[in-house]
Amino acid sequence: MVEKDRRLGGSVTALEAVAVHLPPQSLPIEQVVADLGLEPRQATLLRRFHGLDRVRFDPDGTLYDLLLGAARALESLRGREARVRYVLHARSVTQVPYPLNPLHEVCRELGLEHALAFTVTHHACASSLLAVDVAGRLLAADGDPDALALILAGEKAFTRDARLVPGTSLFGESSAAALVRGGEGSDRVLSYSAVLRGEFDGRLAEDPDLLQRYQRAYPELLAEAVVAALEAAKTDLGQISLILPHNVNRISWRTLCKRIGFPVERVLLDNVPELGHGFAADAFINHRTATDRGLLRPGDRYLVAAAGVGAAFSAMVLEH
């Protein structure tokens, strides 16, 4: 199933600011592989073929610390807390048992108790793109042109399943925050697409057949989401200045670029070896890297793409 952004030609959503929080501990993948009880050859596979080197962790920190760290780094939020109507946590997996709720604790600490706070989790690691779309729809219906939404992304890699994508990647604990507004802004959303394939739902680490089928279908389905987003934005692939990926690995992006005919040199893969896969935070982490390095000029169109196990394949076209 492909869902296209129904707001095109109507209300506008924009990313106003993005901030990133990087935990202090950076572990070589050999240590992570050993901690997980995997064979050393898995580290060789991840390093040589998938391009991973190190992964960030905060062994003494909690999910609350990760989310608050990202929000604190969002300087444009300060003094504007009263304008925040919605706070969304883009999440991949269940993190804490009921009745604990770090998101509400973060809201209290930031002075956002008045905001409607909830989690967006249905698209796993592609939930950050879904959260931007949901935030835009809420702001469009709100009617207040000054209203804002805060999106938080980042999770603890606290179990074996939450630390490893078998034969593919390792998860890290970096986090990010994004301030979203309705109307024109520095990064305007032009389209959003999601390809949802529930037949891939399951535990890949325990089902080799499911893992193999998912890996075979992955390039085609992510390409389908990318093409759908480009069509909805009335944009040719040649007009895309940069792709901001999810940081699963490098080889999957080389495969996708070959499939769609896009130069892999224009995919921002620099964070893959340094951070590992940051769950749903990758889109915002790479956005911050691109803006900090001046890789996007005013008027540039760029594409953000992500995949979530379960499975969701998403893409979003924006204009800087």
Total DSSP E strands: 14
**What best-fitting shape do the alpha-carbon axes yield?**
globular
Largest sheet report: 10 strands, mixed
Q: Write down the secondary-structure element order.
A: EEEHHEHEHEHEEEEEHEHHHEE
| Estimated radius of gyration | 18 Å
Please tell me about this protein's structure.
It is a single chain. The protein has 320 residues and is α+β, with helices and mostly antiparallel strands. The protein has nine helices and 14 strands. Strands 1, 2, 5, 6, 7, 10, 11, 12, 13 and 14 form a ten-stranded mixed β-sheet that branches. It has a two-stranded antiparallel sheet with strand order 3-4. Strands 8-9 form a two-stranded antiparallel sheet. Strand 13 and strand 14 (312-319) form a beta hairpin. Helix 1 packs antiparallel against helix 2 (40-48). The radius of gyration is 18 Å and the shape is globular.
Index terms:
single chain, 320 residues, alpha+beta, two-stranded antiparallel ribbon, 25% strand
Can I get a quick summary?
This protein is an alpha+beta fold. The chain has helices at 29-35, 40-48, 63-72, 102-110, 127-142, 208-232, 251-260, 271-275, 282-292, and strands spanning 2-4, 13-21, 25-28, 54-57, 84-90, 116-120, 148-153, 164-165, 169-170, 175-182, 187-196, 240-244, 301-308, 312-319.
Topology:
Blueprint (H helix, E strand, L loop, with lengths): L1 E3 L8 E9 L3 E4 H7 L4 H9 L5 E4 L5 H10 L11 E7 L11 H9 L5 E5 L6 H16 L5 E6 L10 E2 L3 E2 L4 E8 L4 E10 L11 H25 L7 E5 L6 H10 L10 H5 L6 H11 L8 E8 L3 E8 L1
Parallel strand pairs: 5-6, 5-7, 12-13
Antiparallel strand pairs: 1-11, 2-10, 2-11, 3-4, 7-10, 8-9, 11-14, 13-14
